[in-house]
Structure formats: structure tokens, C-alpha cells
Write a structure and sequence with these properties.
The structure is a single chain. With 219 residues, this protein is mainly alpha-helical. Helix content is 47%, strand content 8%. It has helices at 36-56, 62-78, 89-104, 114-121, 126-142, 183-192, 196-199, 204-214; strands spanning 10-12, 15-17, 22-24, 28-30, 156-158, 167-169.
Length: 219
């Protein structure tokens, strides 16, 4: 991948490894690092499960549907999502439609808008959940249990004089738009906008609690 790639050929033992326009290593990615097919397959799996739930559950109270959605459907939409960050709005919409359909089938909420259904159920949109996960991962790499592994991931700009939090990150430069979707790039702007009390949280549990309150101002 990349400009100036000599496109070497590789062997596994005595067998030459053939090139492929798309690879599945737990996450489906093509030669241009496009994850649209991975996104479509994740939505397809979740929609199949939703269809099974619709056919199997006659009464659909929130107490029954929400646990089924959280346990059986949402994991397909969020598995390894820190790696296959969505690049296009159409991919964002494909996943969000799954949650939209799931919340609409709950008894008594059909007439509400999607945003009102989320507020009523105490849910985040999937887009906001992805940001929530990114910021939690960033905290782990900067201050939590992954700190040793994350030393080279970010460049810190730590100063008590900065506005907002006192441990801001330096935004990197990139020539290709796809780079801005990498975890170490896309999380920086949102981390820098977190309030001081969230960034300075003494533990992951405290950080999560502060983050829930701050997220409404970030999206």
C-alpha cells in the first residue's frame, strides 16, 4: 500500500502468496483501505437477527427488546469498530438504520422520531457510541492500563495555561484524507475539547462518568 510501493511478492514456505483486492483478517478491507463492505456485512448480520426477533417476539416491550438488541445485534455493529472507522456518510447511515429499525419496533415508541426514541430509551446514536469508545481507548493509552503501549501514539502538549483541559494532544499533519480517519488522528480534536475534570479523572470508571456528561457538547 502507499505511493512508491515496490509491490514485492511474498512466499509462505514454498508457496507464493497471491495478491488480492480484498482481505478478511477479522475485518474486511480492500486495497484502498476502504471498509464499506465490512460495514455492509455487519449491518446485514444485525438485520437478520432483527428479523428473527420480529418473527419470534409478539409482545415488544422495551424490557424485552432492549436486552436482545444490546446482546445480539449491537455487537455486530461495533466489533473492532476502532479499527474499521467509517469513512463515508453512506456507511454511517447503513449502520444507524439498523438501530433506527430496532428502536422503532418497541411498543409505544413507533410514533416518536428517532432522536426522541433514543432519549426515551437512554441510548446514544451509534455515531456517538463510536466516539465514546474512541475517547475511552484514548484515556487507556494516555493514562490507563495501556499507557506503556501507547507512549508513541500521541504527542502531548501539556500545560496549565491551555484553555480547557491541561493535557492536550498535538494534531498531526497528513496528505491523504484517509489518514484523518485513523484512530490516532480522529480522536485528537475530541480529546482536546474534553473538560479538565474528565481528562484528569483518577480512574477509568470516573472518566466514563464524566465523559457521559460531556458527550452532548461534542457531537
Amino acid at each position: 500500500m502507499g505511493q512508491g510501493n515496490p509491490k514485492h511478492k511474498y512466499r509462505l514456505g514454498r508457496e507464493w502468496v497471491e495478491s488480492s483486492p480484498e482481505e478478511d483478517m477479522g475485518v474486511l478491507v480492500n486495497e484502498k483501505l476502504n471498509m464499506s463492505r465490512q460495514c455492509a456485512l455487519a449491518a446485514q448480520k444485525a438485520n437478520r437477527i432483527l428479523g428473527c426477533i420480529k418473527r419470534s417476539v409478539a409482545s415488544r416491550p422495551r424490557e424485552g427488546i432492549l436486552p436482545l438488541y444490546s446482546a445480539l445485534m449491537r455487537p455486530h455493529l461495533e466489533s473492532c469498530v476502532q479499527l474499521w472507522s467509517l469513512q463515508h456518510k453512506k456507511d454511517v447511515d447503513v449502520l444507524e438504520r439498523v438501530q433506527r429499525r430496532a428502536t422503532k419496533m418497541i411498543r409505544g415508541l413507533q410514533s416518536l422520531s428517532y432522536e426522541d426514541r433514543l432519549r426515551e430509551l437512554g441510548l446514544f446514536s451509534l455515531e456517538k457510541r463510536r466516539l465514546w469508545g474512541d475517547l475511552i481507548a484514548a484515556f487507556q493509552y494516555l493514562k490507563g492500563s495501556y499507557r506503556k503501549d501507547g507512549e508513541g501514539f500521541f504527542t502531548r502538549v501539556c500545560s496549565d495555561r491551555t484553555r480547557g483541559n491541561s493535557c492536550k494532544l498535538k494534531e498531526g499533519r497528513f496528505r491523504l484524507d484517509i489518514r484523518k480517519k485513523f484512530f490516532t488522528m480522529r480522536v485528537v480534536r475530541h480529546w482536546n475539547r474534553l473538560p479538565r475534570e474528565a481528562v484528569d479523572a483518577p480512574s477509568l470508571e470516573v472518566f466514563k462518568a464524566k465523559l457521559d456528561g460531556a458527550l452532548s457538547n461534542l457531537v
